[in-house]
TrEMBL record:
Pfam families (alphabetical): RepSA
InterPro entries named in the record: RepSA (IPR046828)
Protein name: Plasmid replication initiator protein
Length: 450
């Protein structure tokens, strides 16, 4: 026994616990979460009229007198099981808004729906690969820093130079950081602009738009190689009541496409005046992609779109090479962050600008690790489809365990810790692996007949 590694000895200790079955039940209920949160407390459900106790749950009866719940981290590098679950929820959330299900009517698949990609503008030339690859310039001129304007090299798609500026001194890091800090506002104004363009194309006064139609969306942010965020979004047009309501006759795919293009090209956000920086006018990049999602199966597949969007929510900033997963607290953190020189320069400019009083509301230091971008990875409008909370509640009813019910009348809970002992971690990893491989074989069965 003493010769076994500590984790194994600990796992054996746990397995000998008289409450091991219940212990394993908790592990299963958290899906083998790598960093579970432990709670202590009780829930009592009373009959509202008689005062009779209908249900009583107390962690005193649980192993270790505590209940473990998932950490729910979306990043695969932090907790693989929770990340998979989150990606699955995102998939269902996006899919329900495309083809119905989860209390969304199937009729949404016949509504005008677009898959839209909006990009950041150029902040200076960067090395590129693929169709858009680096091109030598015929005039062979250099910038004021003595670096060539063009590049004749052919880079591999995953080459380390791709996304790095041709001249870091010419690259507009200030504009890049400030654009990130205003990307959420740019999106909000873009949506307002789409509504406005739709209204005017239908001959409506803007203020009447909400009485005739409703615009819903789910969007996800992705970091490109140059460290700039771009946005993929599903945009759908319904009647005024949302998913249950038919859009008006004028609400066509063509009109929606025109409105998206017009709004993306015209929307501007002006930064607050700064003595150091001046005032910038921030816009979307000129590359705007709008793809109609057709109910007849021609064009992009709905499931593929939902899977594409879900994929991005599991990625942390460090996985995409654009930032780190943890916040930066000082200059030394930036100096030692495992990132490219280009990303480090962006972090530095975020830190520097974050120290200016006029930019305080942008919280650039707090978000220097994500290069100034402080939006959520996934954002959706209320009427798009279901919610993460509803999906979790549905799953909890299905599993029927380890969920704090919604109908409680009296409850008291407190946090008592988090994480596994070495042996617990070993067992949790085993549970997570089982669940993952079961899910994979279930998926194989579904996909095989195609
Ligand atoms: Zn977890
Ligand atoms: Zn190049
Ligand atoms: Zn230069």
């Amino acid at each position: 026994m003493r010769q076994l590694p500590e984790a194994d000895r600990d796992a054996i200790r746990i397995a000998q616990d008289p409450q091991f079955t219940r212990w394993l039940g908790q592990l299963m209920a958290t899906g083998g979460c790598a960093h579970p949160v432990h709670l202590s407390g009780s829930t009592t459900t009373l009959d509202a009229t008689t005062g009779e106790i209908l249900r009583h749950y107390d962690t005193r009866d649980e192993p270790g007198e505590r209940l473990s719940v998932r950490c729910r981290n979306r990043r695969a590098t932090v907790c693989a099981p929770c990340s998979r679950l989150h990606a699955g929820d995102t998939f269902h959330l996006v899919r329900a808004g495309l083809i119905g299900g989860k209390n969304v009517p199937d009729a949404v698949r016949h509504r005008p729906r677009l898959f839209v990609t909006l990009t950041a503008p150029s902040f200076g030339p960067v090395h590129r690969a693929g169709d858009d690859r680096c091109q030598p310039r015929r005039d062979r001129t250099n910038c004021e820093h003595g670096r060539p304007f063009g590049c004749g090299a052919v880079h591999d798609t995953d080459g380390s130079l791709v996304g790095q500026p041709l001249c870091p001194d010419c690259y507009d890091y200030t504009a890049h950081a400030l654009w990130h800090a205003h990307a959420g506002m740019l999106w909000d104004r873009f949506v307002i602009g789409v509504r406005r363009h739709l209204a005017s194309s239908a001959g409506l006064v803007q203020s009447r738009f909400a009485e005739r139609a409703r615009l819903s969306f789910a969007r996800v942010a992705e970091y490109q190689r140059r460290g700039a965020v771009h946005v993929h979004a599903v945009v759908r047009l319904d009647g005024p009541d949302g998913p249950t309501d038919e859009p008006p006759a004028w609400g066509t795919v063509a009109r929606l496409t025109d409105a998206v293009r017009a709004s993306a090209s015209r929307v501007v956000v002006r930064t607050l005046h700064s003595p150091a920086v001046g005032e910038l006018a921030l816009r979307w990049g000129t590359q705007v992609d709008t793809r109609p999602l057709r109910a007849d199966g021609l064009g992009p597949d709905d499931d593929a779109v939902a899977a594409y969007v879900a994929k991005y929510v599991t990625k942390g900033a460090n996985e995409t090479g654009a930032g780190t997963d943890h916040k930066l607290t000082n200059w030394a953190d930036i100096d030692t962050a495992p990132v490219s020189d280009h990303v480090r320069s962006l972090m530095r400019v975020c830190w520097r600008l974050g120290g200016l009083p006029e930019y305080e509301p942008l919280h650039l230091r707090l978000w220097a690790h994500t290069l100034g971008y402080r939006g959520h990875i996934l954002t959706k409008s209320r009427a798009y489809s279901t919610t993460y909370a509803a999906l979790r509640a549905e799953r909890a009813r299905h599993v029927g365990h380890a969920y704090i019910p919604a109908t409680i009348t009296e409850r008291s809970w407190r946090y008592v810790g988090s994480g596994h002992t070495p042996g617990g971690a070993l067992l949790a990893a085993g549970v997570a692996e089982d669940i993952a491989s079961n899910r994979e074989s279930a998926r194989d069965e579904i996909e095989a007949p195609r």
